[in-house]
Amino acid sequence: MPQFDQFSFLNQVAFFLFFFFNFYFFISYFLLPTISSNIKFRKKYINSKINEKTLLNLEIKNKQISYTNLFKDFSNYYETTLNQNILNYNIYKNEYLLKNSLINLVYVTKIKNLFNKKFILSKKYL
C-alpha cells in the first residue's frame, strides 16, 4: 500500500474503513452463518448415523443372543428327547428280550416235549 498522502489521507482511510466493514459484515452475516449451519447439519447427520449404527449393533447383539438361547434350548430339548428315546429303547429292548426269552423257553419246552413224544412213539412202534 502506498504511503499515505497528506492530501488524500482522509479519502484513503474512508475507503479502507468502507471496504473493511463491508467485508466484515459480509463475512459475519452471510458467509459464517452458512458455514456454521453446514457444520451443524453435518454434526447432526453424523450423530444420527452413529445412533443408527449403535441401534443396528444392539439389534444384531440381541439377535445373536436370542439365536444362541434358541440353540441352547434346542440342544437341551434334543438331548432330553434323545435320552428319553434311548431310555425307551432300552426298556422296550429289555421287555422284548424278556418276552422273547419266555416265549423261547415255552417253545423250547414244547419242542422238547414234542421230540420226546416222537421218540417215545417211535420206540413203541419199532
UniProtKB/TrEMBL annotation:
Pfam families: YMF19. The keyword Transmembrane applies. The keyword Transmembrane applies. GO terms for biological process: ATP biosynthetic process. Its main location: mitochondrion. The chain crosses the membrane at residues 12-32. It is found in: Mitochondrion membrane. This is ATP synthase F0 subunit 8. Signal peptide: none annotated. InterPro entries: YMF19-like_N. Residues 2-75 form the ATP synthase YMF19-like N-terminal domain. Keywords: ATP synthesis, Membrane, Mitochondrion, Transmembrane, Transmembrane helix. It comes from the Eukaryota. GO terms for cellular component: mitochondrial membrane.
